[in-house]
Amino acid sequence: MLKNNYHTHTKYCGHAKGEVKDYVEYAVKLNMSILGFSDHAPIPINHGMTKEEWEENYCYENMNIETFDQYLNDIEILKDKYNIKLFKATESEYLINNDDWYRKLRSKLDYMILGIHFFNGEGRVLDTYKDITYKNVDLYYECAKRAIETGFFDYLAHPDLYLFDYKSINGKNEFDDKAKEICLKLIELCVKHDIYFEINTNGLKYSADKNKRELWPYPNIEFFKVVKEYMDKNPNKLKLIVGADAHTPEALGNDNVEAVLKMISDMKLDVKNKMEIK
Ligand SMILES: [Zn+2]
Ligand SMILES: [Zn+2]
Fold first, then answer.
1. How far is the CA of 8 from the centre of ligand 2 (A)?
2. Do residues 180 and 226 touch, judged by C-beta distance below 8 A?
3. Nearest ligand, measured from the Cα of 200
4. From CA 108, how far away is CA 56, in angstroms rounded?
5. What digits encode the pLDDT tens for the residues 12-45?
6. What is the pLDDT of residues 161-187, one digit of tens each?
7. Cβ pair 49, 120 in contact under 8 A
8. Structure pTM?
9. Strands 118-121 and 196-200
10. For 103, what's the count of Cα atoms within 13 Å in the CB-facing half-sphere?
């Protein structure tokens, strides 16, 4: 059972279900202490991508710019009404030439999550779920680096998402040396900038057999073995945090959450229960 969750979506993004209030009430029912909302931030058209790329990458499945203030207001009016602490945040992509936009967003939020579902690279926008190979995976890391160096972000969502359909030199989905190198670079980046590093429970929804951890798209077990190795060698450096990435109220406490918590306890991974909000 999660006591606190900082990665929560709502109906505003267009692909999650439930009002802000539904999530709050469900979290209270689960006896949670903290609920942070991080719905997908609006993405203006023609910022860092063409209109076609905007459509191809489902940017319409993010909040509308027009509803953003309503989203914040929904959270605001429920503060102090329930016995739970609420935070306002977004999960945002990071596209080039957009810093004024992210700065404006960040000024209205308690924290901001970086979730790289697509990114600028090779003269076009690459899709994290299907375009990554050993040849271009550095560009995923470069996006994370550029984003985090701005100082706008506090939390890196599903850092292992690059492994979703990652192809090695053999054209196979395997965790090769290059994948390991990127994993270590992401860890070091987050340590250097004091960014929370997520274990995301929502990847299990893509898993055919939840009992086979080696088949989970994310959390990726090979990736987190490297994380564990790093943390054993460098204690108290990396701030791991579990995120439900809830797209329904029930996902705040479903089987996927439980399966990942079991993995964490089996692997003896040291996770933070609470985020320090700056
Ligand atoms: Zn989503
Ligand atoms: Zn999310």
1. 7
2. yes
3. 2
4. 28
5. 999 999 999 999 999 999 999 999 999 999 998 8
6. 999 999 999 999 999 999 999 999 999
7. yes
8. 0.97
9. unpaired
10. 6
